[in-house]
Amino acid sequence: MMRSIFSAIIFLVLTRVVYAIDPRWGQGCTYIDRTEQIYCFGGEPFSENSQQILVYALNITGNSVLDLSEPQWTDIPGDPNGIRPSAASRFTFTGFPGTDTFYIQGGIVCTSCNYNSGFKYSVSSNQWNQTNKNKPVVDASSALVNDILYSFGGQTSPLTGYDQSNTTYRNTVYYINAKTGADGPSVKPQNETQLPPFTWASSMVYSYVYRSLFIFGGKQLSATEVTASMSDITVVSPQTGVYSKWKNIRSTSGSLPPARWGHSTIIDSSNRTVVMFGGCNDSGKAMNDLWLFNLDDAVWSPQETTGTPPTPRCRHSVVVLGKYMLVLFGGNDGTFNSDINVALDMTTWKWTNAPTNILPSDSSPPIDFPNSSSPQGSEGINEGGDSSSNISGGAIAGIVIGSIVGEDSSSLCLRNETDI
Ligand SMILES: *[C@@H]1O[C@H](CO)[C@@H](O)[C@H](O)[C@H]1NC(C)=O
Ligand SMILES: *[C@@H]1O[C@H](CO)[C@@H](O)[C@H](O)[C@H]1NC(C)=O
Ligand SMILES: *[C@@H]1O[C@H](CO)[C@@H](O)[C@H](O)[C@H]1NC(C)=O
Ligand SMILES: *[C@@H]1O[C@H](CO)[C@@H](O)[C@H](O)[C@H]1NC(C)=O
Ligand SMILES: *[C@@H]1O[C@H](CO)[C@@H](O)[C@H](O)[C@H]1NC(C)=O
Ligand SMILES: *[C@@H]1O[C@H](CO)[C@@H](O)[C@H](O)[C@H]1NC(C)=O
Ligand SMILES: *[C@@H]1O[C@H](CO)[C@@H](O)[C@H](O)[C@H]1NC(C)=O
Ligand SMILES: *[C@@H]1O[C@H](CO)[C@@H](O)[C@H](O)[C@H]1NC(C)=O
Ligand SMILES: *[C@@H]1O[C@H](CO)[C@@H](O)[C@H](O)[C@H]1NC(C)=O
């Protein structure tokens, strides 16, 4: 009793407006519609006071102009005596549409900190709850499909705080039930020989039209460690367990997007066009280019934009709000961003730091990107996938969270670790 009163007082006293958050990468960010705020958690470099677990909130003030040049974050300290995860980065992260909660799992954690199994955070109670005891994974990509959070790849290394002396890698899709937090098994491959290489720092989207998870880029470990080519797209049907690789991936510009890791991908509401932003190349240099991938044609095209784009970055987060994609944080060659920077209007492809009418209203139509509404069939592209029937089930409520993960390269890593 005393403790909860005490916590309530702490909560009231310490909640304050901060104009900028420390620069970081590898954080998780999501929009919660019940409170009309964006919430971010974690990321590195870990602060000296890494035991202090803060959640940051940004008020999306109705339909007025949001000033992203000086965003006013509020920091929310957690209950120091309550259940909470360790300070972490590059964890698996998702918000749950229609609820006031988000979920984190794994990631690298502060020195000598406990590993993060699954934790759910409730915005309204400012409380964390442990939802499973799963083995932590760092640098997995993920996508929420109805109530199932699918993840792909990643590693369990000593940096995750898990008690083991070597690193184990993954190359399968696995999942949890988002409602209960209960662990699901890996999506059993129909044919083991079709599994992709061990992969981390990739990105993933789910298309309801293709009933498939699409995995882009990342670092792969086969004979050596390489950054996955953008012609190397792994497509997984969670229903059938078919892991396939799309062939004949082309680009309208003649050259494929540069290979990358720590980038972001989202899918539009037609479930046919993927938007990819940024990431780091094989030399660890960050990019700020924008590409569209048309699933029907299996073709990449560079998307021209106007306005001032975000600086090059990887391990950033993106949050989609109505027609805008907001780019948050991220790093580049040892420097880190604290800015939300700018939002991309995906109807005009203009970057702006003063988006208007940002919240989707109930009457506004879902955003389909230009060209994405002219499907041309997919015969001969998907090897064995189940692309002809439509999935039934709920929606993602118009909010798509790009899952951003990254991978160390010596020039970028602030921690003295060599084994990840
Ligand atoms: C967000 O901003 C709106 C408009 O200024 C205000 O009415 C609301 O109380 C704010 N919400 C929070 C949680 O601060
Ligand atoms: C915390 O999680 C456990 C296990 O999932 C659940 O039984 C419990 O009800 C949760 N508590 C709260 C306050 O949500
Ligand atoms: C990893 O560690 C386990 C347990 O210590 C050991 O059995 C296994 O051989 C190790 N694997 C490699 C690849 O070093
Ligand atoms: C599994 O995939 C390999 C390589 O694509 C193929 O050669 C083999 O025939 C497949 N096995 C079955 C049972 O389909
Ligand atoms: C994808 O398709 C589903 C089902 O038709 C729809 O509810 C959803 O809004 C679409 N877009 C996204 C981004 O999920
Ligand atoms: C990465 O980008 C930098 C800067 O554009 C370039 O100099 C370098 O060659 C690129 N590395 C690779 C492997 O593409
Ligand atoms: C969109 O259409 C324009 C004009 O028809 C074309 O130049 C462009 O390549 C198309 N983009 C995509 C992604 O198909
Ligand atoms: C999929 O959905 C589209 C649009 O709702 C519809 O025209 C088409 O017949 C559906 N396909 C199947 C196989 O159900
Ligand atoms: C990292 O650790 C190694 C081994 O402990 C040490 O030799 C090296 O100087 C350290 N590097 C940095 C940049 O701290």
List keywords for this structure.
Neuraminidase; 1 helix; 420 residues; Galactose oxidase; Kelch-typ_b-propeller; kelch repeat; repeat; mainly beta; 35% strand; disordered N terminus; five-stranded mixed sheet; signal; binds 2-acetamido-2-deoxy-beta-D-glucopyranose; 3% helix; disordered C terminus
Please give a structural write-up:
This protein is mostly beta strands and 420 residues long. It contains one helix and 35 strands. Strands 1-5-4-3-2 form a five-stranded antiparallel sheet. A five-stranded mixed sheet has the order 25-29-28-27-26, with no helix packed on it. A hairpin with a 5-residue loop joins strand 7 and strand 8 (101-105). The N and C termini lie far apart (44 Å). Residues 1-13 and 371-420 have low confidence and may be disordered. The structure holds 2-acetamido-2-deoxy-beta-D-glucopyranose (NAG) (9 copies). One 2-acetamido-2-deoxy-beta-D-glucopyranose is lined by residues 165-166. The site of one 2-acetamido-2-deoxy-beta-D-glucopyranose (NAG) has 3 residues, from loops. It comes from Phycomyces blakesleeanus.
Short description:
With 420 residues, this protein is mainly β. The protein is 3% helix and 35% strand.
Shape category: globular
The rounded Rg comes to: 20 Å
Q: Give the class from helix and strand content and strand pairing.
A: mainly beta
Write down the overall mean pLDDT: 81
> What CATH architecture would you give?
6 Propeller
Number of structural units classed as domains: 1
Describe the strand arrangement of the main beta sheet, using strand numbers: 1-5-4-3-2
User: Quaternary state, please?
Assistant: single chain
How large a portion of the residues is in β-strands, by DSSP E? 25-35%
Q: What is the straight-line distance between the termini?
A: 44 Å
Bound molecules: 2-acetamido-2-deoxy-beta-D-glucopyranose
Tally of strands:
35
Q: How many H/I helices?
A: 1
* Main beta sheet: 5 strands, antiparallel
